[in-house]
Amino acid sequence: MVFVDARLTLPRVPGKSFNKRDPGEIVGFVVHQGAGEGTIKDYAEYHTSTKNHITPGDPRPGLCYTFGIERDGTIVWANDVNVRTSSQKGNSPVPGKYGNTHFMGIVVAGDFKAGEYAGGAKPNPAPAQVTALIVLIWHLSGYRQCRDMPYGLFGCVPSANYYDVWGHSHFGKRTCPGDFLARVVGIMRAERPSHHEQLNTARDWQLRLKMKGYDPGPIDGIWGSKSRAALSSFQAVRGLATTGMRDAATKAALLGD
Ligand SMILES: [Zn+2]
Predict the structure, then answer these.
(1) How far apart are CA 36 and CA 16, in angstroms?
(2) What is the predicted pLDDT for the residue at 99?
């Protein structure tokens, strides 16, 4: 397994930068396939050209994913964790759940569209790529020592967890990441609901409030006055007692939406 920090070496557009975000707001990962065959550098060149399909005529600042996985399984770190690349937009895969903006994009190099979409058989991802994808997501989220490290170190995301991995198809792009990777994603998601969907921690509640349009302050897991005020506002709208407390009735209301 090779891990390359290419944040300073991949093609970029001078003077342009992606929007920033609080890494604490990230709840998981979205898996993509490449737009056609190529290397991660090829994709970066395409995104930073006027020919890119995301904003035609307007070059993107850099590769529109946080990580890429080459055909040989090399993991390429392309953007800082606190950068919301152009792939991170759009609505939630499930009504009431987090939108794509709360996820980190990972692109697997290759064109894996299923035959039914592409009109012909396409190659599946290489075994090394699938292995690298699983290890990367595990590294970024599921490994406790990684979660305890500071933001940004090897791309660690303390708030994310292993089960919050989706395919781009869940966000409306039907052909991405292709049937094979969609099955891999399905296996990784398993049957267990993610931590934040159970609202176990103060951070989970903050994220949920933020997603619903309330401002709980920094997503830091500290239940301070801003978080209490945000929850009180939600409770008021829902006709609940405005206590700012994380009680069972409020939890049900927050999760039920
Ligand atoms: Zn995609």
Answers:
(1) 25
(2) 67
DSSP per residue, 143-192:
-HHHHTSPTTGGG--TT--TT-EEEGGGGT-TTSS-HHHHHHHHHHH-SS
Measured from the Cβ of residue 80, the count of other Cβ atoms closer than 10 Å reads 16
CA of 64 to the centre of ligand 1 (A): 10
Question: Does 117 score more than 50 pLDDT?
Answer: no
Tell me the one-letter amino acid at 18: F
> From ligand 1's centre to the CA of 236, what distance in Å?
39
108 alpha-carbon distance from chain centroid: 14
Q: Cα of 175 to ligand 1 centre, how many Å?
A: 8
Q: What is the CATH number of domain 199-256?
A: 1.10.101
Smallest CA-to-CA distance from 232 within 222, 247, 250, 244 is with 244
Cα 90 from Cα 106, distance rounded (Å) = 16
Residue 105 near residue 85, CB atoms below 8 Å: yes
pLDDT of residue 48: 96
pTM value > 0.90: no
Closest alpha carbon to 107 in 66, 48, 166 = 66
What's the gap in Å between 103 CA and the centre of ligand 1?
Answer: 13
Q: Tell me the two tokens of residue 249.
A: 């009735």
Provide the 3-class DSSP secondary structure of residue 41: helix
How far, in Å, CA of 199 to CA of 233, rounded? 18
Domain assignments of the chain as residue spans, ordered by start: 3-193, 199-256
Q: Return the CATH number of the domain spanning residue range 3-193.
A: 3.40.80.10
Counting DSSP H helices and E strands in the chain, the numbers are: 9, 8
